[in-house]
Each structure stands twice: as structure tokens, then as C-alpha cells.
């Protein structure tokens, strides 16, 4: 009789979401195999490194602390004390409305802590290497899934087969596991792309994350530690697709001129401090967040535009929910009852957040001047109502 190496949990996907899921379940005492077809790129300037950043919000930090990860990240994490929204949608590209959402209004902690994605992967991989309960196999992907009543068998790309009680699909928006289980998704496109890169600037960011709205999508500056002795920020610049690709192809001097116009130089003249990368912008959600012996998390379950630091934090909320269910009844992880509870708890919130971010993104794309004027008036009105302002901040953090 053929035998298979067995685990409590197999995590398909070695991005930030998959690696953090492996750490979370492993720290709770479950045996975990994590696989990913690509080796992790863990150096800032290496080809293929992910130059985007992630703001880990308060609930996400609690999960990473529980998994034993935060001690590795704390020294590099930049606290986000203020979320600043600037409307620059007037006739001239300059700030006309500026509103600050201040963390101290609702909490004694920052909204979140910003970290580069490449650094997150580096520290996550290093942490997993020291965990006896977790096996991480880069360069090995999921080639097939056979789900049975009491376990799932996962055929791997190196020809081996592993068995688990729960398969966690954290393998991206084109998830091979989701496709193998024939779980449908709905996708919404915007005709946008996002440029992601790092900059330095003469003025300190003072732990303020800033979204500047004009048209095409927000231009977002997120605090980073100093780089080569100068204040530094990560930039996500969303634009209509053809314009994004035009910007991507510009010589460096012309690109810097364009980004300085778009940034309104609120931190002084920006200097490009990394290579540029470009990412497609979509919303996507799975019809159901589970299949036989399988839970979908992160971009296998939901994709949103990079607005309001929701992407990875929604993924960490998926993991929090799954982990709580697994710890409450470890003998029945992966059972239909557990997976149905997971879907009932997470899916309505996921749909609500996808809809909310979709609305924010469409608003940020507005190009007609009267509509941009309405957007500025709406920002003023929402900010002026203190209870509404506080509720929006609490909802953004995922507070209950």
C-alpha cells in the first residue's frame, strides 16, 4: 500500500499570506507543509523583488505576535500615526482639501506599521526555518488536489504526494487549488495599473501615510525607514493602464518630473530610490471561501485595489478566523462543519469590503471636474462629522 507523508495542514502558496499562515498554524502546534513554485525573493534590489509595502493594521499585528513573528519585524516597522487624504482635483494640480485621520482619536496605538513586502518574506522564511512544526518547500508547487471525506491528497510539482486534513489555498488570484476544486470567481476590472517604487525626499514623513487624489487613482506615500541617510517613502501610483505604462517607460529624469507634479511636492522634491514595478488592478472574489477539505484565503479568495491597507489585512483576518476555529476543535480541522463556519463568518465581511473599496477606487478615478468637486465636498462632509469619522477609522482597522 502506498504511503504519503501526512500533515495536519498544507499551505499552497509562499507569498506573505501563505508564509504567515504556515507560521500561525505551526505556532499553534499543528504540523504544516508550505509549498510555493517560486523561490522567495528576499533582497530589496534583487530582480523580481516585491517593492510594494504592506501596512499591518492592529488586528494583523496581534496575529503575527501570536505566531512569534512580530519580534523579527518590529525594528523595521514604521508606525502609521496619521492617514492623510488630500484632494488635488481642482483645475490646478495642487492640494485644495487636506484631512487627517488621527489614530489617537480611537486608540492608544498607531493605525498600523508599514513594512516592505520583500522584507516581510525574508523574515517569514527565516522564522519558518526555525520551526519544528513547519516544513517550507520553495520551488515546489501544487499540481493536483484529490479531496476525500477525511483528508486531501495534494500532488506536488516534483512528483511527490502529500496528505493533510486541511488544505489552505493561499496561492494567489489565479489559484491552482481554487481552479482544481472548480470554485467560481467574479472579477471586476478598472482599466488601471499601479506603479510601485521607493523614493527619498528632503522633508520627514513624520509617520504620516498620504493619499493624494486627482484622477486615475490615488498617489499614495507610505512611510519607510530612512534610506541612505534621507527620509524615504514607498509610493503606489495608480493610473489608467495606458498612462501607467507610459510612465513606466519614461527615462528616470522625466519620470521624476512627472511624479513630483503628481505628488504636489508635499514632502519636497521626490528622488527615485528603487526600480519601478507595475501591477494590474482588479477586484475579485470567490463565490465560496471553501471546498472539500480546503479553505481559500488571501488573493485566492479576494483581491482588492491597494486602497486603505485592506489587502493583506483581509488575508490576516481570514487566517485569524481559521486559526480560532482550528484551535477550538483541533480534532475536526478541515471538516465540512468547520469550513462552513469559516465561510459564514468571513464571506459577508469580504463582500462588504470589496464593495467599499470598489466605490473608493471608482471615486478616485474621476476625471470630470464637476465630479471631482463633488468628491472634495464629500470628503469635507464626512470628516466634519466626528462620529462618522471615528466609525470609518474603526471599520478600516477591522475593529469590532
Gap between N and C termini:
50 Å
Computed CA radius of gyration, to the nearest angstrom? 21 Å
Strand content: 25-35%
Find the count of extended strands (DSSP E, 2+ residues).
20
Could you walk me through the main structural features you see in this protein, from its secondary elements to its overall organization?
It is a single chain. This protein is α+β, with helices and mostly antiparallel strands. The protein has helices at 16-27, 58-66, 70-73, 117-129, 176-180, 241-249, 252-263, 311-328, 336-365, 369-384, 386-397; strands spanning 5-12, 32-36, 53-57, 78-80, 82-87, 97-102, 112-116, 134-138, 142-147, 152-156, 161-169, 185-200, 208-213, 219-227, 230-240, 271-272, 277-286, 290-291, 294-296, 302-303. The protein contains eleven helices and 20 strands. The strands form three sheets. Strands 5, 6, 12, 13, 14, 15, 16, 17 and 20 form a nine-stranded mixed beta sheet that branches. β18 (290-291) and β19 form a beta hairpin. The mean pLDDT is 90.
Amino acid at each position: 500500500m502506498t504511503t504519503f507523508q501526512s500533515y495536519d495542514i498544507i499551505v499552497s502558496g509562499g507569498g506573505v499570506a501563505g508564509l504567515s499562515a504556515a507560521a500561525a498554524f505551526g505556532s499553534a502546534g499543528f504540523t504544516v507543509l508550505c509549498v510555493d513554485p517560486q523561490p522567495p525573493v528576499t533582497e530589496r534590489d534583487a530582480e523580481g523583488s516585491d517593492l510594494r509595502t504592506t501596512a499591518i493594521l492592529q488586528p494583523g499585528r496581534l496575529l503575527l505576535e501570536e505566531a512569534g513573528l512580530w519580534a523579527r519585524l518590529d525594528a523595521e516597522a514604521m508606525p502609521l500615526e496619521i492617514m492623510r487624504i488630500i484632494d488635488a482635483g481642482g483645475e490646478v494640480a495642487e492640494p485644495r482639501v487636506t484631512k487627517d485621520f488621527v489614530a489617537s482619536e480611537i486608540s492608544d496605538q498607531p493605525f498600523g506599521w508599514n513594512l516592505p513586502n520583500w522584507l516581510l518574506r525574508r523574515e517569514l522564511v527565516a522564522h519558518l526555518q526555525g520551526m519544528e512544526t513547519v516544513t517550507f518547500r520553495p520551488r515546489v508547487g501544487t499540481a493536483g488536489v484529490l479531496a476525500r471525506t477525511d483528508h486531501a491528497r495534494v500532488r506536488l510539482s516534483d512528483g511527490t504526494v502529500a496528505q493533510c486534513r486541511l488544505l489552505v489555498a493561499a496561492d494567489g488570484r489565479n489559484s491552482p487549488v481554487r481552479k482544481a476544486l472548480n470554485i467560481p470567481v467574479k472579477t471586476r476590472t478598472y482599466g488601471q495599473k499601479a506603479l510601485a517604487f521607493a523614493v527619498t525626499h528632503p522633508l520627514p514623513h513624520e509617520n504620516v501615510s498620504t493619499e493624494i487624489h486627482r484622477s486615475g487613482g490615488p498617489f499614495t506615500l507610505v512611510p519607510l525607514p530612512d534610506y541612505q541617510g534621507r527620509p524615504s517613502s514607498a509610493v503606489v501610483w495608480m493610473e489608467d493602464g495606458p498612462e501607467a505604462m507610459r510612465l513606466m517607460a519614461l527615462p528616470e529624469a522625466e519620470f521624476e518630473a512627472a511624479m513630483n507634479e503628481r505628488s504636489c511636492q508635499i514632502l519636497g522634491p521626490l528622488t527615485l530610490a528603487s526600480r519601478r514595478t507595475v501591477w494590474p488592478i482588479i477586484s475579485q472574489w470567490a463565490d465560496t471561501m471553501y471546498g472539500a477539505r480546503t479553505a481559500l484565503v488571501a488573493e485566492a479568495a479576494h483581491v482588492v485595489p491597494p486602497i486603505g491597507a485592506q489587502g493583506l489585512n483581509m488575508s490576516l483576518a481570514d487566517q485569524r478566523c481559521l486559526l480560532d476555529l482550528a484551535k477550538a476543535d483541533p480534532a475536526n480541522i478541515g471538516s465540512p462543519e468547520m469550513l462552513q463556519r469559516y465561510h459564514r463568518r468571513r464571506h459577508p465581511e469580504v463582500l462588504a469590503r470589496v464593495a467599499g473599496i470598489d466605490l473608493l477606487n471608482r471615486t478616485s478615478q474621476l476625471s470630470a471636474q464637476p465630479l471631482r468637486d463633488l468628491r472634495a465636498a464629500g470628503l469635507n462632509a464626512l470628516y466634519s462629522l466626528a462620529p462618522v469619522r471615528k466609525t470609518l477609522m474603526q471599520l478600516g482597522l477591522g475593529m469590532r
